[in-house]
């Protein structure tokens, strides 16, 4: 029962971390973009336009990148399964010995390992080899569309926050409001990701806040430079 719960917790942690990291990307890149455009002297309308364009561009590129990388993972898994299917068709006995060898390596007696391998292969030979030889678990199977949509959504969610601040903050304090609120949210997200992964919260918060603040400062500097020379 504990192992069952642990496996689901591991899967949930993986999903949560991917979502938090996606939101971090959206938050850091969009707030940096907004601060850079503001430092270049643009008005609120120009800042919002750049921010919204940044949200869509970022979400689309995250989705494209995730879809491509998870699809190639799916291709690899499918090719492995096809090869396994052929090996089972061409030499079933050798595959049985191979599987028994894996179980012996995991600590079963040779006799028991042969029995387990024979029964599991009789039940679902490809499934047994996929799971115990290739390490492919149904739970972690590559789902490109799901991965692409969830990373685009988490990026967009992170990006929405500084955009909201731009619409709410009085123009004279816009830069301060966006940078301060974004840094606070980054610290919160960093702590959340660290907590989900069982790491030290302070370290997780500091790490993402520091890099986020550096990105915002660099973009603000570039914007100011561009505004001054433009
Ligand atoms: Zn095999």
Number of domains: 1
Structural class of the secondary structure composition? mainly alpha
Shape: elongated
Number of strands: 0
What's this, in brief?
The chain has helices at 2-39, 44-90, 92-105, 110-132, 144-168, 174-196, 201-229. By secondary structure, it is mostly helical.
How does this model look, in words?
There is one protein chain. The chain is built from seven helices and no strands. It is mostly helical. It has one domain. 31% of the residues are buried. The mean pLDDT is 90. The site of zinc ion (ZN) has 6 residues, from helix 2 and helix 3.
Question: Characteristics of this structure?
Answer:
230 residues, mainly alpha, 7 helices, binds zinc ion
Secondary structure: elements and pairs:
Blueprint: H1 2-39, H2 44-90, H3 92-105, H4 110-132, H5 144-168, H6 174-196, H7 201-229
Helix pairs in contact: 1-2, 1-5, 1-6, 1-7, 2-3, 2-4, 2-5, 3-4, 5-6, 6-7
This protein binds zinc ion.
Zinc ion is lined by residues 84, 87, 95, 98, 129, 133.
């Amino acid at each position: 029962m504990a192992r069952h719960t642990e496996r689901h917790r591991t899967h949930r942690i993986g999903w949560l971390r991917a979502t938090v990291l996606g939101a971090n990307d959206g938050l850091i890149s969009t707030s940096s973009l907004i601060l850079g455009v503001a430092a270049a002297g643009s008005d609120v309308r120009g800042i919002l336009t750049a921010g919204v364009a940044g949200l869509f561009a970022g979400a689309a590129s995250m989705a494209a990148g995730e879809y491509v990388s998870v699809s190639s993972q799916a291709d690899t898994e499918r090719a492995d399964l096809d090869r396994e299917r052929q090996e089972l068709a061409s030499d079933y006995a050798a595959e049985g010995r191979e599987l028994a060898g894996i179980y012996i390596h995991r600590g079963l007696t040779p006799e028991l390992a042969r029995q387990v391998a024979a029964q599991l292969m009789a039940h679902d030979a490809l499934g047994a080899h996929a799971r115990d030889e290739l390490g492919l678990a149904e739970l972690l199977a590559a789902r490109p569309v799901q991965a692409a949509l969830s990373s685009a959504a988490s990026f967009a969610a992170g990006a929405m926050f500084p955009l909201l601040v731009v619409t709410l903050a009085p123009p004279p304090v816009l830069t301060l409001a966006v940078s301060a609120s974004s840094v606070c949210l980054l610290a919160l997200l960093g702590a959340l990701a660290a907590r989900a992964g069982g790491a030290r919260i302070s370290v997780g918060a500091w790490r993402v806040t520091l890099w986020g603040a550096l990105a915002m400062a660099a973009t603000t500097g570039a914007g100011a430079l561009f505004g001054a020379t433009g």
